[in-house]
Amino acid sequence: MKRYIGKRVFDGVVIGNLVLYDENISVDNKSEGNEMEIKKFHNARESVIEDYKNIFHEKKQLSDNTIILSYISLLEDLDLIEMTESLIAKENVSSQVAIQKTCHNLKQMFSNLDNEYLKERVKDIDEVCNKIIKKIQNKKEIIITSPSIILARNMSVSSLLKIESSKILGLILEDASPNSHIAILARSLAIPCIASLYERMEVENDELVILDCSNNCVIVSPLKYEIEKYKKICERNDFYKQELNAYKYKEIETIDKKRVKVFANVSSSLEIDNVLENNADGIGLFRSEYIYLNSDTFPSEDEQFIQYKKCVSSLKDKPTIIRTMDIGADKQVSYFNISKEKNPALGYRGVRLYKEYKEVFMTQLKALLRTSIYGNLRIMIPMVTNIDEILFVLNCVNEAKKDLSLRNIPYNNVKIGAMIETPAAALICDQIAKYVDFFSIGTNDLSQYLLAIDRENPKVLDIFDYKHKAILKLIYYISNIAKQNDIEVGICGELARNKDLLGFYIKCGIDEISVSSSYILECKKNITSINTNEIDINEYIN
Ligand code: PEP
Ligand code: MG
């Protein structure tokens, strides 16, 4: 039995078998001579073809078979074969490096083509090339066949989204910070999760583990008495969840009858069922960049439209705030080709990208506006620091409307809001208020920039003080400015659900808090036990 300590991301206690998920593919350039490397390439390629043929015979569903046939034809493609052979022969590189370069070249060739079908095949190239590299390295594929606790090393957000949710009992993000986007995603998917472990786990696949997020620990190979103890805890937790259900359809107000709406944060339209299940009052933050993260090429207007429409129409007249793409920093999307930066959090991110990627941004705005007739859509701009950025977006929205009119596509006017998540935006929010219809305070970035604490760095996590007067003073200031300008103000960062601060927010006049769906009922329950007459704002800010 061994116990490892980390930091809680999402609460829960689960018992299950471990699956190691390490998706780092690092290629080795050690060559055993050109002839041998070419042979290794062909052996691996043929063996992958054999694997696909076996899957082809096992699968009954036609759609699966079509994909598998296209993988096989790619593996037999002369371009792939000749390019790799020539790289090995002419550049004297290893078979692993050669296939990696071929993959890159083929992807570029395909994505420059003016053919939607071939563009789609970019995903297939990655799939088959990675399979060949893993075969050469003798690495086994990670296939999660039954509900498991996943130990993730270097897992990307898109990989997490690709795993069937019923297969994830719990998640251990060994080296990620609890404020990283992968952790936020785990939280919105309500996956019991801890992150930022103090030491690397020495474990094997399939070992029995207990993930106890309440105590920030994971127990490997637990003793019998511990298994029994934790089974009882699981039963009690199930009972608490049942209790929370009582708040689902209740009119929520504080003891002194003050109201605050509880919205949901989502990263994908797949989470809509959770939002409806918990009866959220709206969506306060749809992180649209996950659509880009989960795609291998720029998502088309129609692809985006389908996802946005699902949210907007499911929520009916409740507001759905969709944030335009916040790409950059720890949400890098390879096909944007953003060059490596020394300080990505202070770099090319969010609204700062929109001028250079204007066409991509316009595609998103058109997809969004098209959904406006299906419900109560609102659009929100991320990472604002000055008025020019807002004016640029407002102009783009007008251009997008003109384009839709020319195409005879209907749309409604929508409210446009700004995320207040940089100290600059917070301090000039009186000016910003003249141009937008609402504010949403992003406490994750606002506190990162205010307190100079990198949200991605577990080392400085312990000095993060959620009651720091700098943060609370700004929240108070922003909400006052919003009231003076008669616009709504919400909080959508992780601090929104903080039990100790809920009363303060309500007293400040915050209209809505937006939290992961999994916290909605708990927040509603907490609100009912607050009496704002007992809250003295001065104690929080002075
Ligand atoms: C925030 O910064 O508080 C926020 C909600 O946005 P994100 O976490 O996606 O950066
Ligand atoms: Mg942010």
List cofactors, ions and other ligands: phosphoenolpyruvate, magnesium ion
Main sheet record: 8 strands, mixed
Number of distinct beta strands: 16
Q: Low-confidence runs (pLDDT<50, min 5 residues)? A: none
Q: What's the N-to-C terminus distance?
A: 48 Å
Round the mean pLDDT to the nearest integer and report it: 91
- Strand % is 15-25%
Number of helices: 21
Summing up helix and strand content along with how strands pair, one would put the structural category as: alpha/beta
Helix content bin = 40-55%
Shape: globular
- Cα Rg: 25 Å
Strand order of the largest sheet: 1-8-7-3-4-5-6-2
What does this structure look like?
The model has no long low-confidence stretch (mean pLDDT 91). The two termini are 48 Å apart. This protein has helices at residues 34-58, 62-75, 78-91, 95-111, 116-120, 122-136, 157-162, 181-188, 224-244, 272-277, 289-293, 301-315, 358-371, 387-406, 423-427, 429-432, 443-451, 469-484, 502-508, 520-528, 537-541; strands spanning 2-5, 7-10, 13-22, 148-153, 168-173, 193-195, 208-212, 217-220, 261-266, 283-287, 319-323, 376-381, 415-420, 438-441, 488-491, 512-516. With 542 residues, it is an alpha/beta fold. Helices cover 44% and strands 15% of the residues. The strands form two sheets. The protein has an eight-stranded mixed sheet with strand order 1-8-7-3-4-5-6-2. An eight-stranded parallel barrel has the order 9-10-11-12-13-14-15-16, surrounded by six helices.
Task: Write out key terms for the chains shown.
21 helices, binds phosphoenolpyruvate, eight-stranded mixed β-sheet, binds magnesium ion, alpha/beta, eight-stranded parallel β-barrel, 542 residues
